[in-house]
Amino acid sequence: MDAIAASAAPDSSRVRGRLSAIMRDDRIEVLDVHDESMRRVRIETSVEFRSLSRVLAEDPGVPIDQPRDLERVFWDVALEPVDAFLDEPRAQLDEPKSGAITECPTCLGNGEAPCDKCGGTTRVNCESCRGHGAIPDKRGSSSICKFCQGQKFQPCRACKVGTLPCKPCNKTGRAYTVQRLIVKWHTRKESRVVAEAPPEVSVQGVGVVAERVVRNEQGALASEHLAELDAPLRAAVDALLAEHPAPEQSKIKTQTLIVERAPVIAVRFRSRGKEQRAWLVGDALEPVGLEPSVPMSTYALIAAVLLIGAAAALLASMRHGAG
Ligand SMILES: [Zn+2]
Ligand SMILES: [Zn+2]
Ligand SMILES: [Zn+2]
Question: Residues within 5 Å of ion ligand 3 by Cβ?
Fold first, then answer.
């Protein structure tokens, strides 16, 4: 792969030929050609969250020892992932011999828990009109629901006051629990567009030019990858990292820096005595913008399709070559 910030120098004779064809003017004068690549920096951070809480468990019915302090070894316990679903527990561990009769985690010791039928509101959707307040008739209109008088709700039959006796603790507010360490993983994706010209080019079509792991569990690594970045990219990375610090009670597993780029060539030229600007993309130098006088929407549409195609091809070739 090329260096992260590398970009090809625009070939002005090709640009001139292309513009002549687009403008149907073979006396075009190219005033300035430069690479105005639109770039985007993405940082993907896989974070592991751990939490410690007491959860309901089956009471073994035999005397238990004093619970130990799992907080002491919080990050030291090695846990194999059991599940790959994001934001679902990936691993969990019950502290040995931590079983004890404690405050019930379901009702927090109240003995009463919010009614699961009405969510504590004491009313549910009317079962006759399903909460619409009206019932459609055969002629296509509707009449007011007689059951709820159009009120849409009926009183909850499961409870009277919004709460029900807590089942896990049998209304006592105390239950058998164990100390459980729960591990969750989550991948955050943050991005920042570094340069955007012209604004009509969709960022969706950009191709990945570099992908580097810049941090792992042991900490920051491969600082040379960051050193490869030019000043605007580096500033964007620094800003992203500052804006999104690792949350508390979490640990970074990996952090990957991805630089994407849409190769856009900006041209200033003179045609038939009028100075204009154009933006060209891809090997075919397709116009994505022309200023003034040509509506950009048509070009933007063409360009979006081309860019997406080019990005897909680029990605495919990179995957192939990366192996
Ligand atoms: Zn309870
Ligand atoms: Zn009703
Ligand atoms: Zn209820």
Answer: 115, 117-118, 156, 158-159
Going from N- to C-terminal start, the domains of the chain cover 12-44+185-322
Eight-state DSSP code of residue 99:
-
Maximum alpha-carbon separation in the chain: 96
- pTM exceeds 0.70 for this model: no
Of the ligands numbered here, which is closest to the C-alpha atom of 142? 2
| pLDDT tens-digit readout, 272-313 | 888 888 878 767 777 766 665 444 344 444 444 444 444 444
Ligand 1 centre to CA of 312 (Å) is 55
Encoded tokens for 97: 């011999």
User: From the CA of 130, how far away is ligand 3's center (Å)?
Assistant: 17
- Minimum-distance ligand to the CA of 154? 2
DSSP H or E segment with residue 260: strand 250-262
Q: Are 211 and 44 in contact (CB under 8 A)?
A: no
